[in-house]
């Protein structure tokens, strides 16, 4: 099989073998980047975000029952679903692998993660950095962030996610009107289509078709928010500062931004913690120069978010850091996950 990243490296073979083993398929077919830095980036993506984003095996689901809570949303009923033609819906790509396909099982798992988190009383929450591995690995860390949006008056969510399957320039908005998960339909905001009308945003469904890093955020949002619209953005190669400049127009008291990213990939536990601490510190102090794609697969979404936060005077704080060695994996090769909140200080 050709090396799609141009990386003549044993690491790629190992990563690909892992991907094939864990997911039972061959992703990354269309990646075409060349050059050492891009190659390293691709290897990191393959090794970490596909290989590490393991299946969500039912036996590893939480056993903690969700506390009865008025803040939790019921599963969307059929009658509540917006009427969107089937061909205009982006169907779930990783239900049954990254998270349960069964709505009741998915609800139970997400609610179980959320029930283990206390609200932190964060004021002026505007954005989160959130991980995107299989739920048994990163779900508890994602829940730490999403628990903080419960009760907020949010009706629009901008999810910024990296591309793991398709190499392209710009930020892709799908040619669709809604996203679907086992928990229901989420309408795509008209703001997404307005963004896509001009560069660096583009209308392109292909980067979205198999992408997990955006999709896995959605069930958490569906369980923590009331009705909301989605601005689904998959990042290719792009000037993040330019993206942030455009995203300023979407900032409102009722809009939350999510930057989807995992951290270090397949390092020993202690080494990962050390490297991820450096990465988290750089994000919190908003030092984009200290961040590289090798540290976080969602480098571009994070950097765009940091530029946005700097422009608006937001502050960042770490809510949770754990890695797969803390949740459901062995400690010899772990993937790091962080939940980081950005607030407007109001
Ligand atoms: Zn990833």
Give a structural overview:
By secondary structure, the chain is an alpha/beta fold. The chain contains 12 helices and 12 strands. The strands form 2 sheets. Strands 2, 3, 4, 7, 8, 9, 10, 11 and 12 form a 9-stranded mixed sheet that branches. It has a 3-stranded mixed sheet with strand order 1-5-6, with helices on one face. Helix 1 runs parallel beside helix 2, helix 3 packs across helix 4 and helix 9 packs across helix 11. Bound molecules: zinc ion. Zinc ion binds next to helix 2.
Record the SSE blueprint.
Elements: H1 10-23, H2 36-50, E1 89-90, H3 103-115, E2 125-130, H4 135-146, E3 156-162, E4 171-173, E5 178-181, E6 184-187, H5 190-195, E7 201-203, H6 206-209, H7 212-215, H8 218-224, E8 229-235, H9 240-247, E9 255-260, E10 265-267, H10 269-284, H11 299-312, E11 315-323, H12 324-327, E12 334-343
Parallel strand pairs: 1-5, 2-9, 3-8, 3-9, 4-7
Antiparallel strand pairs: 2-12, 4-8, 5-6, 10-12, 11-12
The structure holds zinc ion.
Zinc ion binds at residues 48-49, 132, 162, 164, 213, 262, 297.
């Amino acid at each position: 099989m050709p090396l799609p990243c141009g990386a003549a490296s044993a690491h790629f073979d190992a990563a690909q073998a892992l991907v094939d083993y864990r997911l039972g398929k061959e992703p990354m077919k269309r990646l075409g980047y060349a050059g050492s830095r891009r190659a390293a980036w691709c290897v990191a993506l393959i090794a970490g975000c596909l290989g590490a984003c393991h299946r969500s095996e039912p036996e590893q689901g939480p056993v903690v029952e969700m506390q009865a809570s008025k803040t939790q949303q019921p599963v969307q009923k059929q009658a509540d679903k917006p009427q969107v033609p089937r061909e205009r819906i982006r169907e779930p790509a990783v239900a049954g692998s990254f998270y349960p396909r069964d709505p009741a099982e998915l609800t139970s798992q997400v609610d179980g993660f959320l029930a283990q988190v206390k609200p932190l009383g964060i004021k002026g929450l505007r954005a989160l950095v959130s991980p995107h591995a299989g739920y048994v690995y990163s779900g508890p860390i994602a829940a730490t962030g999403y628990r903080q949006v419960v009760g907020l008056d949010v009706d629009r969510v901008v999810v910024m996610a990296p591309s793991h399957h398709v190499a392209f320039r710009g930020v892709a908005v799908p040619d669709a009107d809604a996203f679907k998960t086992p928990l229901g339909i989420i309408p795509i905001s008209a703001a997404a289509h307005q963004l896509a009308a001009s560069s660096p945003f583009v209308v392109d469904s292909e980067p979205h078709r198999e992408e997990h890093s955006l999709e896995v955020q959605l069930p958490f949002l569906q369980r923590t928010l009331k009705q909301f619209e989605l601005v689904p953005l998959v990042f290719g190669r792009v000037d993040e500062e330019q993206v942030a400049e455009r995203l300023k127009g979407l900032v409102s008291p009722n809009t939350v931004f999510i930057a989807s990213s995992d951290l270090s990939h397949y390092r020993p536990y202690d080494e990962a913690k050390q490297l991820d601490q450096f990465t988290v510190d750089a994000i919190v102090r908003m030092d984009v120069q200290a961040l590289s794609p090798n540290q976080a697969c969602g480098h571009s979404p994070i950097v765009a978010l940091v530029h946005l936060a700097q422009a608006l005077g937001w502050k960042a704080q770490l809510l949770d850091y754990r890695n797969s060695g803390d949740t459901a994996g062995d400690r010899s090769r772990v993937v790091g996950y962080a939940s980081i909140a950005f607030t407007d200080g109001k």
